[in-house]
């Protein structure tokens, strides 16, 4: 740990001289060059509050107040671009010339953009870019999506994106994973503020541990995409952008859910507050969440289908604008969680017939320094992030007193990124991006009762370089990434290429190619132990296991149009991924009463398909969004997975069809009606012997999980609002009805929606 502390101290020492060299360090000079103005809705003429007003290429910005007005004072002299932006509106930019002692009045009229054509993303190239002009396709899950679908955690909100599906993989502990384009969870790279500190251990339960309360938006990029992110992003990248303070505000909310209409309740309380100085040079956003969920037993056998949860999260994100052109950002989060599944939940786990009990303590954070050159040619980012996880666990059955374990994990990343903007590079303007990154993960997993000790240290040194030629019509991105993984004896080069063509402002055509790899290391499923047939199942790696490689291609068309008051968007994307030396799991029998699965290299696999998504909005009155994915996932040769069941060529848990929809109707301003749903087609699922006589592959039925929510806002006092909401999730009770029962059950035989029909009510106070 000392070396990481020394690194952080050294990084700060390196940044201080750079900050000291700035002519303006913590406050702007008294130039008396000011801008005042207001922002109106173009259609209604109403003043718009909390619209972001910023000088591009600097750290200077503010938001309009409750009356829709703003004031920027003591600005630097020169020519700048002033920009007004907000979620749900088109961004407007205009040139301004600032002179000492002069005050400009700049008023804006913003036009609604319900389908987010001009929304900004950072996952495409690690720089703030309009989604329409991004070199790769990026989908966004914003706070409205989490609220309208009553999703208190990351795992629930991710379902409402094309090509993305979250599934539950354990009947006892509720282990979940996200699949992009049908590929397993470890094929997806999960980032927090663009940093890969989401380790294998975090991936076991992390999707359900990250509260929506800390999320500004989630950017989902399918496929390998940019070379700036790790080469393990084979299926795609999920980038969790945490909330940044923009104005003084606060919120307190509570939601009560009755699971299955029973006495099993899910209580979720969240709060947050944002504080910003008068000159917007510093800000602090704090958040907290407390969640308590009772265990749920669907079939009355005394064994839970959903585990008991106690979760507390607290954290903050802050910024300090060290000058007009530099900014320091710091983020921290802490999580405590207890989860328990099985039977006899009020007794110690070793007195139960089946018990999976896990206690987590997680601390993580990051530090980032951004510098923007006054001439807008240079941008430099230096960053470091770390996360420490401490886990006490019990995975056992039949009152085994030796099934306790202890796991610790420390993930650290440090790096820098430099961007140079060419006015013209060969044939058009371009951004050249180069960077270095170091990633270290120390994992210790001790299951002394099972005589299993894992000590894994992963060191990855990376260098990346890419150039993006771009204008309003074209974007050509060529890049590559060099990775040296300590568990692989050679350097791996992963090229990336993207092409964007906009024949008009409303049509975006994209082609993409990427390659990647997965190293022979422990993944999230290795750190989860299943109860199967009264014993436990563990994963071991074959001695000659080598890295898995991938080649991915995609092509998409993203089209927008306005028909009077209607805005529509239609997206179609074809994808193909080829996996070589693919990792597969095979049952190789029992050892000391433990079922052993071996991870080895298979023959290869391919995943191909088509995703389609449509959006429609009528003013702010009605919005509809829906998507469907059609795909095939096959091994090159049938892969043996059991000693008693036939080999299978189809990849397990990959339905050929799945999709989602959301709809919101606002007949009057205080009232909001929301419908949402997901569809999961039939898929092939493994069912292990124990409760049944022998292993078998089961073709599941399909599921349509629909929810409804009604919310009404009341004005309590000036800017203080009260919202009351209620609704039903999984209205048609589309839920698995053939769970295994008793101590011999296969806890991994679980599929379909994560919860049965549930009723909820909520209250929220905000200012």
CATH architecture of the largest domain: Beta Barrel
The CATH class name of the largest domain reads: Mainly Beta
CATH superfamily membership of the largest domain, which one? TonB-dependent receptor, beta-barrel domain
Q: Tally of extended strands?
A: 45
Q: Strand count, sense and closure of the main sheet?
A: 22 strands, antiparallel, barrel
Query: Helix- and strand-based class?
Result: mainly beta
Instruction: Give the DSSP E fraction (strand runs of 2 or more residues).
Output: over 45%
Q: How many structural domains does the protein architecture include?
A: 2
How much is the average pLDDT?
89
Oligomer, anyone?
single chain
Which regions have little confidence, pLDDT < 50, spanning 5+ residues? Answer: 1-28
* Basic shape: globular
What's the end-to-end separation, in Å?
41 Å
Rg over CA atoms, rounded to whole Å, is 26 Å
For this structure, the CATH topology of the largest domain is Maltoporin, Chain A
The residue fraction in helices comes out at: under 10%
The number of helices is: 4
GO molecular function, one term: siderophore uptake transmembrane transporter activity
Membrane topology: Multi-pass membrane protein
Domain TonB-dependent receptor plug: 134-237
Protein name: Iron complex outermembrane recepter protein
